[in-house]
Design a protein that fits this description.
alpha/beta; Rossmann fold; 2 domains; 10 helices; 16 strands; Gfo/Idh/MocA-like_OxRdtase_N; NAD(P)-bd_dom_sf; GFO_IDH_MocA-like_dom
């Protein structure tokens, strides 16, 4: 039974934007937080309504709906897409289902938000980008969920770079380090299977840093050279999960399955302007939980951002006299900084979850105003092409000769 929604009387005259979301795990919870909060922080042209959430397990999805604030629940995404009371479909599922759900939702006349990476293959991403362009002619919008664009500090960095504060860009260096796979006993989840996830650290973390680097630089990568590695190639299967994977007879060693994605990716790149870039994405950096850092150097200045200190941006103005020059901290909490006019007084920082509020805010405006959302499916396709080029380069560079002891 669906729960009645009771909008604030002050919102009664604002047209609704009725959301249906597929998936309710980590990203589903994060997106739900964004949709629940955005209309209570920002003045919006449309009022988001959490109409229905979808998952395959009826009891689990109903529990998730109650916990995350959704009025209804579905167990078949096709039924969700077909509902007349859904205006926008938010896709928070593993990558192997992104294309099918997004294409169906666009064909049904819905707006779409799809988590990154856009798809598991370039071919899927191309089909999604084509469908999004055709849907745009009908007034629909389709956006990819690269939420790190919505950190106020990175949005401020983009503004400063666009204003020419760095001058001609020379270098971009970016890393995204996690450690949740260090233990070889960690089970073989869907994120470690290519048919489900598309790739490993490359798609999970590398997609973020490729998009963020291009967003901040204001230009695209023109070429890459890469190495990837899978450090632990067999992992124990989760309890009860043996379908399609190697299993052991009862009483023997625990059943295991093959890891079919990369654990780490390391690549260099060149932007269209000739600026050089380096990228590192790994889930084996012991002690690093969610460490994303980017630095950009130009002939007039430099900017650096660290996600572990996400309310800060570091800037060096290379035009200042050397005797007093150096990197200085910008505390990104002022009301004229991106997104912050709607939040707290200066000095009161925001967190990771606020990026999803900002994402929802920007998407609502794109829907209401009929403007091209950023990042679009075309932007997601371009990132997918970079990821594919990294994989291709890494395959060519995969042979090496160990040094003799």
């Amino acid at each position: 039974m669906e729960q009645p929604q009771h909008p604030d009387p002050a919102e009664a005259d604002t047209p609704p934007l009725r959301i249906g979301m597929v998936g309710y795990a980590f990203m589903g919870a994060a997106h739900s937080q964004g949709w629940r909060t955005v209309g209570r922080v920002f003045d919006l042209p449309l009022r988001p309504e959490l109409t229905a959430i979808c998952g395959r397990d009826a009891d689990a999805v109903r529990t998730a709906a109650d916990r995350l604030g959704w009025a209804g629940a579905e167990t078949d995404w096709r039924a969700l897409v077909a509902r007349d009371d859904i205006d926008l479909v938010d896709i928070c599922t593993p990558g192997d289902s992104h294309a099918e759900i997004a294409l169906a939702a666009l064909a049904a006349g819905k707006h779409v938000l799809c988590e990154k990476p856009l798809a598991n293959t370039v071919a899927e991403a191309e089909a999604m980008a084509r469908a999004a362009e055709e849907a745009a002619e009908r007034g629909q919008v389709a956006m990819v969920g690269f939420n790190y664009r919505r950190v106020p500090a990175t949005a401020l960095a983009r503004r400063m770079i666009a204003e020419g504060r760095l001058g001609t860009l020379r270098h971009v260096r970016v890393s995204y380090l996690q450690d949740w796979l260090v233990d070889p006993a960690f089970p073989l989840t869907w994120r470690l299977r290519k048919e489900r996830a598309g790739s490993g650290s490359l798609g999970d973390l590398g997609a973020h840093i490729v998009d963020l680097a291009q967003y901040l630089a204001g230009e695209r990568l023109a070429g890459v050279s890469a190495l990837t590695e899978t450090f632990v190639r067999q992992r124990p299967l989760p309890a009860g999960a043996t379908s399609g994977l190697s299993a052991q007879p009862a009483g023997s060693a625990p059943a295991t399955g093959e890891v079919t994605v990369d654990d780490a990716a390391l690549f260099t790149g060149r932007f269209t302007s000739g600026a050089l870039a380096s990228f590192e994405a790994t889930r084996y950096a012991t002690g690093r939980k969610n460490a994303l850092r980017i630095e950009l150097n130009g002939d007039r200045g430099s900017l650096a951002f660290d996600l572990e200190r996400l309310n800060e941006l570091w800037f060096h103005d290379g035009t200042e006299p050397a005797g007093g020059a150096g990197f200085r901290r910008i505390l990104v909490t002022e009301p004229d900084h991106p997104y912050l006019h709607a939040w707290w007084p200066p000095g009161h920082g925001l967190g990771y979850e606020h990026t999803f509020v900002h994402q929802a805010r920007d998407l609502v405006h794109a829907v209401a105003e009929g403007t091209r959302p950023e990042p679009s499916f075309a932007d997601g396709l371009q990132v997918q092409r970079v990821l594919a080029a990294v994989e291709e380069s890494a395959a060519k560079n995969s042979l090496y000769t160990p040094v003799a002891a």
